[in-house]
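Standup notes, structure subgroup. Blocker cleared on the WTA input:
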Amino acid sequence: MKREHDSITSVMMEERVFAPSVQFSKGAHVSGTKQLASITSRAAKDPVTFWERQASALSWFAPWKTAMKWKYPHVQWFVGGRLNASYNCLDRHIISWRRTKAALIWEGEDGTVRTFTYQQLHTEVCKCANALVSLGIQQGDVVGIYMGMVPEAVISMLACSRIGATHNVVFGGFSSDAVAERMNDSKAVALITQDVAQRRGEHVHLKLAVNEALKSCPTIKNVIVCKRSDEPTKMKAGRDHWFHDLINAASHVSTAASLPSEHPLFILYTSGSTGKPKGILHTTGGYLTQVAYTARMVFDLKDDDVYFCTADIGWITGHSYIVYGPLANGATLLMYEGAPNWPEPDRFWRLIEKHRVSIFYTAPTAIRAFMKWGESWPRKHDLTSLRLLGTVGEPINPEAWMWYYNVIGQMRCPIVDTWWQTETGSIMISPLPGASKTKPGTATRPLPGILADVVRRDGTPCAANEGGLLVIKHPWPAMLRTIYGDDERYLNSYWKEFPKKRNHPGWYFTGDGARKDESGNIWIIGRVDDVVNVSGHRLGTAEIESALVSHRHVAEAAVVARPDEIKGNALVAFVTLKSNVNADLQNLREELRNHVGKEIGHIAKPDEIRFTDALPKTRSGKIMRRLLRELVTRGDVTGDTTTLEDRGVLERLRVADEE
Ligand code: WTA
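Run returned:
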């Protein structure tokens, strides 16, 4: 990021305001702006006491002695306290009426439904925990999990946390190289996988990828294979075990280990802007406190809700808001195995209708895909069970927000646009649905107990609507503790921008650019490495993309910069069109440039527009602008592409480039 200017020019203004209905507010955990303002201001004065109160909602085996120990840049929460995440998600519910409540309703891609009550899930987790112990896995060991979206993935995670093993989940769509790298970096001793995962009617051969990966993973001694198909699978004697064999032999009696609050719960790898993936380390007490609190408040979770989060378990959203947050609250989850457009583009709406889903949490990239497929698909289904919608993962363009609100929520459901990161572990900035006024495109304000702000490079606060850097000024319970095995990278990645100095406590830098409007709503402009300087203006590429996507023909857009002698940077827009667009591309290019000119201003007009049938994305759906940037600046891509979902996309973009 160039440093000659202190502020980022933000050019998008949104005036539409949506308040929750009186009826929604009345029944919500937090109702009305006044109540929220009073909780927030009290929490801001004393965040530690605020979080202590939230921590008391969990079950502890031993109380903590010190609520927070902060030794820049390392934090510990609830020191001296002992607890177990699996106990909090299961055992404490089975001693109440929730014993017979559905914890997990799972639907396979083929339509098979499996339902686990809290009691049943507890039994499976206990058996799995005993199976791990029978293989010699101990407290403190790292266990890899490389699976699709099956109940056994949740069971495995909770079995690890039950015995104090640290799980390291690798998204089931990653390659064998990615598995090997993550297993080696974390020194995992065992790996839980499946023979195959089911995706769009096809088998993804996870076990084959594991065989390949394990050629270079010397620390892994045991592989546990969950059977999902009748295909024959080669098992290596002494190393590979069938999940069902181990479970059948295991006792269902297992006592959850009493673990220190700071015991490592999991490592989850996430891509940095450069270099190898970062192993984000989360611990038990603080993480669970904040995910439980935010799941309850942000999703307004009630006992009669059916909650459906479409994220994959291999992503932080799957960890925090499929597994730990909702289960800690005794909620009923719907988990779906497959693709949203299988067998047809209405699968999610079908699931919502069939299971009477009341809370639906997905990503803007999915919403844009739904828009592209057309509203006839959701219109076919009864979506009246929905009462709340959520999004996460990237700024949602107002166009997509309005579509979500009108077509899916039918103007009845509040939308919670939740800002957070793998590193924050938990939602940090978000509306509370019964209290906040929302505007399309903003995650609104920091949650109670979170001191987030937008500042200039020199640390002074930005004026209203002046773009700057998003920082967090006080440690929070679910904060990452370090980058596993690389504490120096931890310091450099998050604490170097605003380091501790004599008169400065040191702030966490999120890597995001943002602006705060006059009402205190925070608008994410994008990652600062996605901020470009054009003719002296620093523009968030996300805003230009949002303008492009608001054009009737555009499905998705990614904007990156390439150096330009005159302007400093020229903007290159990669654009995918909606299906059935039959326009003259040369005219459309001009039309789109003018459209951006109209929406944002002349300075933001892309210099070049390239049409493409797909954009390079991570498995979680984030557009990998870094690769596009390389492509437009060097003409080729040399950086790390292990997190790319479909390598073919790059090939096609390269070819298009030569044409
Ligand atoms: C972006 C996902 C705008 C942001 C939970 C952040 C968002 C990065 C939002 C973290 C949102 C996530 N509005 N931007 N509601 N949510 N982001 O680690 O740039 O996969 O820093 O965590 O996604 O992505 P990650």
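Discussed briefly. Residues 1-6 have pLDDT under 50 and may be disordered.
Next: hand off to the docking folks.
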